[in-house]
């Protein structure tokens, strides 16, 4: 738990039962971790929210809207990923006969047929977001199969419906050379850049306050194909790049999803991978992306699918990415992990017991929505960041790397927050520790698995996770807080209840 300024955190070895968390004296043999804020690396808080895929969620579903509100996100994405390249805004659906339409049918239904229509026009999107408590949107435009005149009319329709034209994304993954229609329209990256220059000019002329983002290419462990390898140079360093405000990145992290042992070494190895992807993408930013550009991570996830999907380790990995990307990418403005509700088995933050995350349109509003462990953790984190204006990294001592192979990783990650009810967030990626803090009456809530075996347990329900509340010592005195192993902890200002 972190409280006040100076912030001094603490955590101790987790008791086997994980049932007792209290302040008090610690043995001289126990190692105590201290913490301080590093104001030299303070930054503004990005927009956090779950990425949407409107071909898989009905925006007229009141239960889905309520789930979105409970996620505590501050931004959403219309209409989603690849379908945006075929999206007809006035119909609120993908273009008939498009490659995406057939692909969606295969992916979501397991059959080679189209997915049931779930109409979401700009007006319907605004109504959905109003129920979901979200104001801002990343508007991903159909630049692959639609023209500029049509898309400008779409932006006007969004504005008329009440959605601010603030974040405009120019398509989805045009660096993907496996898509024949993408290659046909943009054989070289510079062809996309040249085509988008008039789009950027027109959008900024009509909405001077809008930020417009070109597609950027992420860092990958594997060597990309030549077209993707030269993408950032040809696109972001072009005339269009000079006019654009931001670059989008889709950061997908490869991990060994079938290495599911609950040993400390295996868990550490997986979580160290989050540091690799976060900070390698930070290096990519400094080396390849113009310094004037803001960064929007409009998709983030893991691959391939396997036995670790939606386990507590999966939730910890996503949360570790959420916590480390703002440190790695100093101009990060938007982070929307994939996804809110979609059929990708590696991804959904929300689901249902009866149908999984993709509910038939005919059942809209009748099916209870559940959080996955990943949705539970990220909703707690997004709630902590909500309304915060400034975030300052916390420096823990000692704080060794998770593995020798990835020296940039750390067992403890944390941010001090200003402007929100939450005063700080800490992610403990190792065994329980003892942290010493100067208490000013804040309350802490920690979310964690009941046992270490549960960290990699397949099919773990969010309802099986444990919330514990270490009790602070009296105000203005030092105390010891026993943070559970593998836990996400939020400290609140004053005596308010912790974010859930």
Largest sheet: 10 strands, mixed
Strand fraction equals 15-25%
Question: What CATH first level of the largest domain would be assigned?
Answer: Alpha Beta
Fourth-level CATH superfamily of the largest domain: Glycosidases
By DSSP (H or I, 4+ residues per run), the number of helices equals 12
Helix content: 25-40%
Straight-line N-to-C gap: 15 Å
Number of domains: 2
**Based on helices, strands and strand pairing, what is the structural class?**
alpha/beta
Q: Using the alpha-carbon principal axes, give the shape.
A: globular
Average pLDDT, rounded to a whole number, is 89
Q: Spans of 5+ residues with little confidence (pLDDT < 50)?
A: 1-26, 103-113, 473-477, 495-500
What is the CA-atom radius of gyration, in angstroms? 22 Å
Instruction: Provide the CATH architecture of the largest domain.
Output: Alpha-Beta Barrel
Give the tally of β-strands. Answer: 22
